Amino acid sequence: MADEVELTIDGQTIRVEAGITILAAAEQAGIKIPVICYFGHTTANGLCRMCVVETKGARGLQPACVTAVKQGAEIQTHSPDVVRARRTILEMLAATVDLSEAPEIQSMLEEYGAKPERFAGGERRQPPMLDDNPVYIRDYAKCVLCWRCVQVCADDAQYAYAINFSGRGFKSSIATFFDKPMPETTCVFCGQCVGVCPTGALKAKREFLIEQGVSLVDVFYETRMRGAGKRSTGGPRLDKGG
Amino acid sequence: MRGPLLFKDIDTAGLTSIATYRQLGGYETLVATLGKTSPDECIEIVKASGLRGRGGAGFPAGMKWGFVPKDSPKPRYLVCNADESEPGTFKDRELMEKNPHLLIEGCALAAYAINAHVGYIYLRGEFEYIQRILDRALAEARAAGFLGRGIAGSGFDVEIHTHLGAGAYICGEETALLSSLEGYRGQPRLKPPFPAVEGLYACPTVVNNVETLMNVPSILRHGAAWYRQWGTEKSPGTKIFSVSGPVRRPGNYELPLGTPLSELIEKHCGGMRDGLKVKAVIPGGSSVPLLPASLLDTGLDFESMTAAGTMLGSGGVIVIDDQTCIVDALHNITRFYEHESCGKCTPCREGTYWMVEVFERLEAGRGRAADIDLLNDVSDNILGKSFCALGDAAAMPVMGAIKHFRDEFEYHVTHRRCMVNRRREVLAGVAP
Amino acid sequence: MSHAPAVTAIDPEVRDWPASRRVEVDEALSHYPNRRSAVLPLMWIAQREWGWLSPPVLRLVARTAELPEPEVFGIATFYTMFNLRPVGRHHLQVCMTISCSLMGADRLFRHLERKLGIGHGETTPDGRFTLRRVECLAACGRGPCMQVNFDYHENLDEARVDALLETLT
């Protein structure tokens, strides 16, 4: 069939639909490629570079989540170069980001034998936790900049456009307009950003309060009453089913 | 006369005005070409001339034009990359400041060759005064019928606008430039698709550097063979080299490609100042590996530079003297890339940060023996593994410096200070 | 983490473009097939008019370009030349990158810090000067170099800088 291609992944020759990504092809072959930023329901951007693979004859490594399969390609998903690249990414993230609530990344750290202590001595990202609404907290010390929250807030799902980026480079962060509190933004508190966050940087306020040992009655007051939360005046009236 | 082609008339008084430009034969090529030479023929002539991109990558310009699909129903765009931000490079600034009409003529001809009716000149934000010079020149060209509807008496329409960036080195990367021009954060996009197929507004787009486009009028006027009288077989023509650092006469020099680096420094720039000696030269802007003084006879062309383990890049020649510590110099350069990393992909965003951390340790006398290998390792894990070439640009100079000057890095670890330090004070602290 | 200044800074009441800027705004919008592309030109016009991009000013830019406000904030903070807080009348931007460094930029910067009594990113109390370190300005052959607002000043040393500052009132 003309719209199929044949390629080899880790020595296994497979035929797949033309135009699909290397990540999808590998999945069909039963080969798991690790990902951080990739999420089936948001636009893939090839940001985190965990999914890189080695293609024979190609320069550098290719991000599997956004690279289309090519006829005759010979791909290695766990070559020494690939493994080293992934390990270094994990080490660098672990050295500056709080990954304590990112179980998937933690198991990757273990699987790849990462030694974050190679990168000891740097400055950790430690912005203060933002607790400004009754629905969720934002703890960007845990953010790995996967972009998923910004994407679901915008064209990938909700079209609310409450959050975007701030700054660039190492100092990039997720932010509202001039860092305004969430209730003053166009946030509709749909919770989708919380749902797609892979690291616990965004977390349901209730879950957060329960973890803090707050009594259920207080959790109710903090998260469901009008005027709940620290700065939620004017926020959504969740008590009226809104 | 400062050079045979682009610098031939560069210092003519009043050259920024269309009257002076025309007295020197300006816009004659445009008039002679439009409607008389077909767009395809123009592409073939530029291909035959061997003109290669002058922005850094050296990609053959005619071939790039040829990649624009002929059957696409979408509009096509020409974009001039005037974001000149590569440290050590300041040629486009002088070219545009002094001879804006040559750029406009080059843009109009390139637009004709690829059948684009709109072109943008993307200037780095700091070039606001050049935007004013160009806007004035564009208005003159419009009034004279060289832009707009049916230009130069032909049936071809083209409009050109300037667009001012706002302080971001990454916007010199062509896909980041297009993102920025479209009104997004200036972050690179995935290639493929390449801009020639899907560029500005997802339409076929050619992105060419200022110097590249300024070569087009004379090539179309005099032909490929004439242009090939300068340079080498694979790197034809002349190139403007921007020389900086402690040489006697720093500045822009137009020389045939292939001229030995030593000739540029010794003959044209008058050698070193203050009794200093050359320790190393970064030949193509800060993104390329340095050449130790022993390789100064290398020819300034794409092939010779690649063979010597570096690249011709943008032609920004940064001369580093024997009293400058290589670790200090590379610390400065790495700082630049950390500051300019767009933050999109992990290896570059985190890696450039860590490279600077390690340099700071070395500088502060807290370096460890393992740090040199760590620096190499982080660089190697950025190289070819990040989203765009900025990562490579950060990695290659460091790897090259460790290769050629490992002793200076080791000295920093063992003695907790620079091996040479007369100019230490000069280079000490760059901005976070 | 974020580049945002305290929102309590001067927050001028800005609702629309002044009549004197309408031509520029329309001209900028006319250059592109969509309004989004005009976002940088609009920010430049706004910065020329108001000196810095305050929240109401960026909101106006967002409305004009028909973009979400947080995205316009994300764009403004991506670039280094947009002022998200007020700056002095003379914005001294000293290039610190390799070629200027090799010619003494660091010494020059420290001289300016001492002379003006302010550091990187700070403004003198009288609002006359803001001092900043910046990256390569494409003046490598004539370093050290500094841009004052948009004007280039090259081949600088301490004496030349002192003489220049005298002229900047």
Molecular structure report:
The complex is a heterotrimer of chains A (242), B (432) and C (169). Chain A is α+β, with helices and mostly antiparallel strands. A five-stranded mixed sheet of chain A has the order 2-1-5-3-4, with helices on both faces. In chain A, strands 6-9 form a two-stranded antiparallel ribbon. In chain A, strands 7-8 form a two-stranded antiparallel sheet. In chain A, strand 1 and strand 2 form a beta hairpin. In chain A, helix 6 runs antiparallel to helix 7. The longest helix of chain A is centred in the middle third of the chain and has 17 residues. Helix content of chain B is 43%, strand content 11%. Chain B contains 17 helices and nine strands. Chain B starts with 17 loop residues before the first helix and ends in a 5-residue tail after the last helix. Chain B has a five-stranded mixed sheet, covered by helices on one side. Chain B has a four-stranded parallel sheet with strand order 3-2-1-4, with helices on both faces. Chain B folds into three domains: 210 residues, NADH-ubiquinone oxidoreductase 51kDa subunit (Rossmann fold); 84 residues, Ubiquitin-like (UB roll) (Roll), CATH 3.10.20; 90 residues, Up-down Bundle (de novo design (two linked rop proteins)). In chain B, helix 3 packs across helix 6 and helix 6 packs across helix 9. In chain B, helix 7 links the parallel strand 2 and strand 3. The C terminus of chain B is likely disordered. Chain B has 432 residues and is of the alpha/beta class. Chain C has two domains: 60 residues, NADH-quinone oxidoreductase subunit E (Arc Repressor Mutant, subunit A), CATH 1.10.10; 78 residues, 3-Layer(aba) Sandwich (Glutaredoxin). Chain C has a five-stranded mixed sheet, with helices on one face. Helices cover 41% and strands 12% of the residues of chain C. Chain C starts with 21 loop residues before the first helix and ends with a helix. In chain C, helix 3 crosses helix 4. Chains in contact: A-B, A-C, B-C. Chains B and C meet through strand 3, strand 5, strand 9, helix 13 and helix 17 of B and helix 2, helix 4, helix 5 and helix 6 of C.
